[in-house]
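Backbone-to-sequence.
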């Protein structure tokens, strides 16, 4: 497919849905931030549900609701659907299709090839145990990795890989005063000397919430002036199991579970220490870590893929994953640090975000990558 001189580069972003706010929000910020004198972004998803879908529609970006994924396990039926998808893709006529699908589906790559369109994907997690991932990678014209472990573990010596870490909007996530309305809502009193610990993550085994709660339970038994807030969806079997085990912490007001929230920026401003205890599988990227760092909240995270990149300049803030006793020790260490040292850490964190993880840098990285992909011959 040839692009006429002077025409804008059309980038079609595909994502199954906008119910999972993390990936959808990242997609929206990249697409919305592209230089509109050069790029013309649009989005394809499979349904209209989710608050973010409405926001994208209201932005003026073109949105296509279409079942673009095919079940290629049923070969003939799946390939027939790929052909139908390719015809629909031709009507959009994008120069590049950029997949934000989190799993190993490679059917849209086949459809893109049939449509004669460049197809790339962002590797968003540390899953790799299927031949489908290898097929997805083989068919891709380019791949964006979110952390260095991905490149070393999955894509070593591949020329089509680029490392473009997630960025954070430092206008949205910044240092503010502690929010009075949120403190009132959560029944947190001022001037009590309480230290607020925070985790922003949905209750899922990979996030290591059980490890955090074990560490916090042992710590809170001796320290009466700490509270833990876990901001995330806990309505699932894993969440129910964890909550039933630590009911006492909830009853005593030590553990606060506000559920999944859209106003997480205010929670970072409320907290003294942010913790992300991801298990050994690792993270694709920890956007919540970056948001906390930009907001002036001291960050502690498990020493796993994703977290490791973001705290590589602050290795003392990493702890061994799945080790509650070591996490408790790390919390004791940081809760006792003097004000001057905490201020120094906060300043270093903000510098790291500004230099290596800005939203503008992430968008620029994508713009450069798209140009590089279009210059390559098929």
């Amino acid at each position: 497919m040839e692009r006429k001189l002077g025409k804008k580069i059309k980038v079609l972003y595909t994502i199954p849905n906008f119910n999972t706010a993390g990936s959808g929000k990242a997609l929206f910020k990249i697409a919305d931030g592209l230089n509109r004198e050069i790029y013309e972004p649009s989005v394809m998803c499979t349904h209209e549900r989710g608050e973010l879908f409405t926001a994208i529609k209201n932005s003026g970006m073109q949105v296509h609701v279409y079942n673009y994924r095919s079940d290629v396990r049923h070969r003939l039926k799946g390939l027939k659907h790929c052909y139908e998808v390719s015809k629909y893709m031709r009507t959009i006529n994008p120069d590049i299709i950029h997949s934000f699908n989190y799993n190993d589906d490679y059917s849209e790559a086949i459809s893109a090839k049939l449509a004669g369109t460049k197809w790339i994907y962002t590797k968003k997690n540390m899953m790799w145990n299927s031949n489908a991932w290898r097929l997805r990678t083989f068919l891709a014209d380019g791949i964006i990795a979110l952390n260095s472990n991905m490149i070393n573990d999955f894509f070593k010596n591949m020329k089509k890989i680029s490392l473009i870490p997630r960025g954070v909007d430092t206008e949205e996530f910044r240092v503010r005063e502690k929010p009075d309305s949120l403190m009132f809502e959560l029944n947190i009193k001022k001037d009590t000397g309480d230290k607020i610990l925070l985790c922003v993550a949905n209750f899922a085994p990979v996030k290591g919430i059980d490890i955090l709660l074990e560490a916090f339970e042992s710590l809170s038994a001796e320290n009466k002036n700490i509270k833990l807030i876990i901001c995330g969806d806990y309505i699932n079997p894993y969440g129910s199991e964890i909550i039933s085990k630590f009911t006492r912490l909830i009853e005593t007001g030590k553990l606060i579970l506000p559920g999944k929230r859209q106003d997480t920026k205010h929670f970072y401003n409320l907290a003294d220490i942010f913790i992300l205890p991801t298990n050994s599988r690792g993270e694709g990227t920890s956007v919540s870590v970056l948001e906390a760092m930009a907001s002036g909240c001291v960050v502690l995270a498990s020493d796993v893929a994703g977290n490791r990149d973001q705290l590589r300049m602050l290795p003392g803030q990493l702890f061994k994953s799945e080790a509650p006793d070591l996490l408790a020790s790390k919390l004791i260490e940081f809760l006792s640090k003097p004000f001057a040292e905490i201020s120094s850490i906060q300043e270093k964190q903000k510098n790291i975000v500004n230099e290596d993880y800005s939203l503008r840098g992430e968008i620029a990285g994508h713009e450069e990558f798209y140009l590089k992909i279009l210059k390559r011959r098929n």
